[in-house]
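Q: What structure does this chain adopt?
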Amino acid sequence: MNQLIECVPNFSEGNDMNVIKQITDVIESVEGVKLLNVDPGKATNRTVVTFVGNPEAVIEAAFQAIKKAGEVIDMSKHKGEHPRMGATDVCPLIPIAGITMEETAGYAKKLGARVGEELGIAVYLYEAAQANKQRSNLSVIRAGEYEGFFKKIAMPEWKPDYGPAVHSVKSGSTVIGARDFLVAYNINLNTTSTRRANSIAFDVREAGRVKREGNPATGKIVTDEKGNPVNIPGTLKSVKAIGWYIEEYGIAQISMNLTNINITPVHIAFDEVCRKATERGIRVTGSELVGLIPLKALLDAGKYFLEKQNRSTGVSEKELIKIAVKSLGLDELAPFKPEERIIEYLLKDASKSRLIKMDLTEFADETASESPAPGGGSISAYIGALGVSLGTMVANLSSHKPGWDERWKEFSDWADKGQHYKNELLKLVDEDTNAFNRIMTAFSLPKATEEEKKARTAAIQDATKYATEVPFKVMQLCYDSMEVIKAMAETGNPNSVTDAGVGALCARSAVMGAFLNVKINAAGLTDKAFAEQLIAKGNVIEEKAQQAEKEILNIVNSKI
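A:
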């Protein structure tokens, strides 16, 4: 697997788009890097940039961006709501694929050393890149901010990790490190009071608040036997939060960093802030995402809010995202565009999902054209997707059938399974064609020398083996999907029983069609043992699918 890391530098400029563009231009000039998102904030006067690539390319782009930011941003004139200490305030590296956190931390150190030596900017390491855990927390490092760092940097305990112990008047100092994926997330309130917003933030953030006697805001600080302040922890783990007023919107917000969304997901953070705000007579009106978010976070949120309504969660990915956006109020302050905010959508290679992006007429026309692909394999995968989609439809109709309210979860679970099979089969519509194209590419390789002939033969065999495995996977998924179809024929909404029957016909046809592709591709393999084993397994699946179809049709016909 290719190594892939993400970089999310925060630059202290959120208003001058010309300045921001100069920074993003140098990022995009580095080969091997893809710019995913640029998110400027006027009130915070800060821009969060997200890009990904191979490690060497990413740290080169990050270095050039830090260099350019130091040239075009003057920190002595900077004002903004967000805490900051430099033109490039913080530059985290995040492991995405094929790379460990330890390796990513090594790249952060490499970047920090270069920034310190070549640019003369004081650099502090944080999170996984910082060995000294007393100064690994970003908020601890940044305390005092730009204005206070002229004195702070002179303290022996705050000597920079790299670069001179001098806080630059123009570019300030910067923090570079390695961390897990973090979601920056702001929750909107129907108040203008920063103090009240902060109170809610202290209620929920993991660090909580200092315990006081009497008045929680002005009372005497309670200390332990060693004289240390006693802390009241907040209700949410892996959450950092502060309250602030955003003049641009005319509201106060809870500004949150969700440092581990597996522990505290976005929807849990949102609901807990709603609860704490209500206790203080304040209402949450919506929320705002800063930067990017993983797809799973929004899908989980969509399912969470549907479950609260006792509604089926087995709906499409698009519908789940729509529910999440509306429930969280992510579109209150500006339109929320999933294609620009979900990291997987930005990383998706459109060329590998060309067929399923077509409309029905385009797909039929493409199939009917003189091109050999898409062929029977892709069509089998699509027929299978349609078959299980019918079973899923019956599950969703059953979940919402009047009088069956107490059974909503039963059918929701079946619909979830159906959606899984449908999504996997839709991927294979394109993958079968991609596999065919791999064979064609292998056949076009040069064969002038013996070495080239061997390489070409090996490539053809590898591609053919893959082109055999893809339709076999279609067979397995389509047969497995028949459990959903059968369950809906047996227990689903009786008014839709014939839809389950049509689904069974599609699934069986898909299994048999895919098996034809398995057999013709397996015939071209030199690894005969592998081919024979796959054909034997295919025969079993085909027989089981045909039997399942008969059983489902018997159930359907008995109910008509």
